[in-house]
Amino acid sequence: MPKFAWVVLSGAILCSVFSYGQKKADEVVATIGNTKITVKDFNEKFNQAFKNSVNPLPTKKQFLEELIRFEIGVQEAEKRNLDRDPIVRDAMRRELYKGLLEKELGMKVQNMPITEAEMAEHYKRNPEVRFSHILFELKPSPTPEQRQEALDRANKIFDEVKKSKRPFPELVKLYSDDPLSKQVGGDAGWQSRLTIVPQLYDAALSGKPGDIKGLIETQFGFHIIKVTDKRTYENASKRAVRLSVFEEKRKKIFDEYMEKLKKN
Questions:
Q1: For residues 25-40, b (16+ Cβ closer than 10 Å) or e, as one string?
Q2: CB of 76 within 8 A of CB of 2?
Q3: Region 214-226 average pLDDT
Q4: Which of 35, 84, 130, 177 has a Cα-to-Cα distance from 207 of 20 to 30 A?
């Protein structure tokens, strides 16, 4: 007999779960070994899994099949005593941590109000800028000699760039060590203080469109940037601003909660 042949599904109850009628919460949908999944269990798990989803939902039959596979996997892991494995225990600890945050902060974060005034004030502190860049890459943990070699090359090319009449995208293709941005002429897109390393953001913010600035050192290497555009709050993506405000407030709530735990 197959190892998991003892999965029992109640056809009548399956029909009840997949219909819209009122059914008893304690009716059993599936039995896996000694574990029973009731209508109440099923509905709670389904609603929890997809309460904030904007993606198409699976059918209830598909979700039940996934629950059954999950329970089979858990029971097999328990048989093998995998809960004693260090890697598994570490994963379990991470899930406990995530569960704590979801339980304590989930609803508080999801229900945070975000006003137009907050968005405007946030944008005033974090206006969006757009720039293109040339990267002179530094490998992780470079030796002093490697760093100096990259710096000398960057300084030499920076002098050439300042004098050059060629379009900046052409200079990017000639000199940059960043293979991805080379494909788009070095364009970094619209960036705010929250989306890019502070050295590049501050340099771009301090210039005006058309300015070429350098050399700027980051953990990636040395950069030459050309400021290409700036935009006001009225022209900014309100969805992006709202997400930035949400993330800022979420982080504040998280930090305050962790500080409270430390004190306790």
A1: eeebbbbbeeeebbbe
A2: no
A3: 91
A4: 177
Are residues 70 and 28 in contact, defined by beta-carbon separation less than 8 angstroms?
no
3-class DSSP assignment, residue 165: coil
DSSP of 113-150, one letter per residue?
Answer: ---HHHHHHHHHHS--EEEEEEEEE--SS--HHHHHHH
CA–CA gap between residue 15 and residue 30 (Å, rounded): 12
In the Cβ-directed half-sphere of 235, how many Cα atoms lie within 13 Å? 8
Kindly report, as residue ranges, where domains of CATH 3.10.50.40 are found in the chain.
128-230
Q: How many CB atoms lie within 10 A of CB 201?
A: 21
- Estimate to the nearest angstrom the gap between the alpha carbon of 18 and the chain centroid: 34
Sheet with 7-9: list strands edge to edge. 7-9, 28-32, 35-38
What strands, in cross-sheet order, belong to the sheet with 221-230?
187-191, 129-137, 221-230, 212-218
pTM (2 decimals)? 0.57
Which tokens is 181 given?
């941005």
Q: Where are the alpha helices (DSSP H) in 183-237?
A: 198-206
From the number of C-beta atoms within 10 Å of its C-beta (0-12, 13-18, 19+), residue 204 rates as: buried
At 115-158, the pLDDT tens digits run 999 999 999 988 999 999 999 988 888 899 999 999 999 999 99
* CATH number of the domain located at residue range(s) 128-230 in this protein: 3.10.50.40
**Cis link prior to 105 (omega < 30° from 0)?**
no
